[in-house]
Amino acid sequence: QQARQAALDKIEANLKPLEAQSREAVEAAVGAVEKGVTDAITGLSEALSAALENIGALEVVTKAADAAQGQVADAVAAARSQVDKLKEALRVAAEQTVEK
After folding, report:
1. According to the 3-state scheme, what is the secondary structure of the chain?
2. What whole-number distance in Å separates Cα of residue 45 and Cα of residue 8?
3. What CA–CA distance (Å, rounded) separates 48 from 50?
4. What does residue 76 show for φ and ψ, rounded to 5 degrees?
């Protein structure tokens, strides 16, 4: 009985350090996973922020392009109007020249 108890005590004494080592290893692994997840979330957050900034910049460029397109359309319409006026003036001048 005493020998058996002594053997159990010795086994228990040998297991305690292993238990502590196992706990430390698990805690270190959990810490590493937590850090990895935190870093991944931070990286994703930064990437999303950059994407949102790019979208904002694209919206500004698109609005500017739309405005420029409108200005070009207005300029083309004004130029066509001037060409029409010049054609009419030339036609009138040609008629007057022929009449003289």
Report:
1. CHHHHHHHHHHHHHHHHHHHHHHHHHHHHHHHHHHHHHHHHHHHHHHHHHHHHHHHHHHHHHHHHHHHHHHHHHHHHHHHHHHHHHHHHHHHHHHHHHHC
2. 54
3. 5
4. -65, -45
Tokens of residue 52, six digits: 């949102």
**Locate tokens 């991944």: which residue?**
40
- What single letter denotes the amino acid at residue 2? Q
pTM for the predicted model, two decimal places? 0.51
Sign, Cα dihedral of 59, 65, 69, 72 = positive
- What is the C-alpha separation between 66 and 74, in angstroms, rounded? 12
Please say if the pLDDT value at position 38 is more than 90. yes
Tell me: pLDDT of 7 over 80: yes
